[in-house]
Amino acid sequence: MVKIEARYGAIAQVKADALVNAANNHFWMGSGVAGALKRAGGWEIEVEAMNQGPVAVGEAVVTGAGKLPAKYVIHAAVMGQDLQTDAEKITQATRNALRRAADRGVKTIAFPALGTGVGGFPLHECACLMIKTVREFCAGNNCLEKVIFVLRAEEDYQTFRGEIEKG
Questions:
Q1: What are phi and psi of 165, to 5 degrees?
Q2: Is the pTM of this model over 0.90?
Q3: Predicted local distance difference test score (pLDDT) of residue 129
Q4: Which of 36, 63, 64, 119 is most exposed, with the fewest beta carbons within 10 Å of its own?
Q5: To which H or E segment does residue 99 belong?
Q6: Dihedral sign (CA 84, 57, 70, 110)
Q7: What's the pLDDT tens digit per position in 59-70?
């Protein structure tokens, strides 16, 4: 059974097989999570991702992780060029990121709160959607050992932690 946890901190510093980027569907990495991953891992992550886009919103692509403490970055396209998102896009992007991870035999994966920064999606609703999607995916797929939600703000961390503990 997969272990799901919340962690307070910076996703670019998390040691995991794969780190998830909250991406747009063209994969340019500007600010927020994407910018932090690019700064820490190197510009080649963005180049490799952009070479695979554009894709439909909700899809995910995989790149190398550059200098990050991971094997892969999974770019989950949670919004288009309008920088808007919704529950369905977040659910699809989460599910497709998990699929890409499973395809590569990933055991540990770290997610940010998808769509809550630039996308402006409500944090509590995001936590409910993402945790539910992880549980549903992992119920039928035993490859993942640990899913870590990494949050930069204490309030965000507490929100995800509370939803995980509800079981």
A1: -65, -25
A2: yes
A3: 98
A4: 64
A5: helix 87-103
A6: positive
A7: 999 999 999 999
Closest CA to 95 of 64, 59, 125, 128: 59
Domain ranges of the chain: 3-166
Instruction: Report how far Cα 94 is from the mean position of its chain's Cα atoms.
Output: 7
Give the 3-state DSSP-derived string for 11-80, with helices as H, strands as E and coil as C.
HHHCCCCEEEEEEECCCCCCCHHHHHHHHHHCCHHHHHHHCCCCCCCCCEEEEECCCCCCCEEEEEEEEC
Q: Is 117 left (phi over 0), alpha (psi -120 to 50) or beta?
A: alpha
- Which residues have a Cβ under 8 Å from the Cβ of 8 and sit 6 or more positions away? 150, 151, 152, 154, 157
Q: pLDDT tens for residues 31-44? A: 889 999 999 999 99
Specify the CATH number for 3-166; select among 3.30.300.330, 3.40.190.10, 3.40.220.10, 3.40.50.300. Answer: 3.40.220.10
Is 116 exposed, middle or buried (CB count within 10 Å of its CB: 0-12, 13-18, 19+)? buried
89-124 tens-digit pLDDT? 999 999 999 999 999 999 999 999 999 998 999 999
- Coil, strand, or helix at residue 98? helix
